[in-house]
Amino acid sequence: MRKTAMAVFLILLAMEPLFSSVFKGQREYMKKCKVCHGGGAKMAKSKTSQEWIKIFKNKGAVLVKAHENSKRIYNYFKSENFSKKSSHLRDFFVKYAYDSGNVPACSD
After folding, report:
1. Which structural domain, as residue segments, surrounds residue 35?
2. Is 33 exposed, middle or buried (0-12, 13-18, 19+ CB in 10 A)?
């Protein structure tokens, strides 16, 4: 019994980054994107998961191009902070994309 409990604990511990990545992406969206784009659920549902994956390819080149008219946001996309957190943002958008069937617990 003790070995089984330890195995379950280790599996859950190993799976934690999968969930925290989505949570980190949602938190980053709320800090950086909500002001202009509104709630995260609505934004994520605007595209399919494959569309979000394409948008985030090449270090988010499509996002950078779409935001080049806003200097403050453009600088964010060129920063090391975005480089570190872009995978979390991608995971958030893919998890709650139009075709995912998922809804974030709290989008505001």
Report:
1. 20-95
2. middle
Residue 69 lies in a domain: yes
Question: 93 — phi, psi (to 5°)?
Answer: -65, -40
Nearest Cα residue to 94 out of 50, 55, 64:
50
User: pLDDT confidence of 29, banded at 50, 70, 90?
Assistant: very high
How far lies 3's CA from each of 6, 12, 16, 38, 81, in Å?
5, 14, 20, 47, 41
Give the single-character DSSP code of 79: S
- For 38-75, the pLDDT digits (tens) are 999 899 999 999 999 999 998 888 988 999 898 888 89
> Taking the model in full, what pTM does it have?
0.76
Q: How many domains does the chain have?
A: 1
* Residue 107 is assigned to a structural domain of this protein: no
**Do the domain assignments include residue 6?**
no
Inter-residue contact 22 to 88 (CB < 8 Å): yes
